[in-house]
Specification:
about 200 residues, alpha/beta, Rossmann fold, about 25% strand, globular
Length: about 200
């Protein structure tokens, strides 16, 4: 297992947990977060914010686009130009942060291709993904190298420390990877048996 994805209802604290974990890890990091845009107390859309400080609209109610999720127009160009480069690992010891792998981000074909490449890489990927999901999102959640961690109001306070204890040994293993970085060599398909991970109660 080299990828950890948090899931839970909107507003439960998934992004906050990831931010707390990232702040406490002394290792190279790359990736992006999504932030709400609000005006007069109403949500107007979302911003992409990379770990190296780039910002761009992900979606909004006043953006022109042919791609829509709910009542938000999605800026696929910004996903391609800002989010995608941010999640391509360049070194073995980088932590990849992806918040989130959602319907908006998946409007981009380039993002869908790149997230699979990132999951295949030897780097640890820490991200968020919606509850439920069909098609592409469900396939990602069913990968045998992905650990799905449910976030609830009950467990969210303790989760950062619990996950830090799991993540630190995994980051150490990245110095001796069995897989190659994307673009370095062909990464063959996996044929590992499905792994059994702790039930949600483990994280309560």
């Amino acid at each position: 297992m080299s990828n950890i994805l948090l899931t839970g209802p909107p507003g439960v604290g998934k992004t906050t947990i990831i931010q707390k974990i990232v702040e406490q890890l002394d290792c190279p990091k790359r990736g992006f977060y999504t932030e709400e845009m609000r005006e007069d107390g109403r949500r107007k859309g979302f911003m992409l914010v990379t770990l190296d400080g780039k910002k761009a609209h992900l979606s909004g109610t006043d953006i022109e686009s042919s791609h829509w999720v709910s009542h938000y127009a999605v800026c696929v160009e910004n996903i391609d130009e800002i989010a995608v480069p941010a999640i391509i690992p360049a070194e073995f010891d980088e932590l990849i942060v992806v918040d989130e792998i959602g319907k908006m981000e998946c409007c981009s074909e380039k993002f869908r291709h790149t997230i699979v490449t990132a999951l295949n890489a030897p780097n640890l990927l820490l991200g968020t993904i919606p509850m439920g999901g069909t098609g592409f999102i469900r396939a990602l959640k069913n990968r045998d190298d992905v650990k799905i961690v449910p976030v609830t109001k009950k467990n969210r306070t303790n989760l950062p420390q619990i996950l830090l204890e799991e993540i630190k040994p995994l980051l150490q293993q990245q110095h001796y990877p069995e897989k190659q970085l994307p673009g370095k060599e062909h990464i063959p398909p996996r044929h590992h048996p499905a792994q059994k991970y702790p039930e949600p109660a483990t994280y309560e």
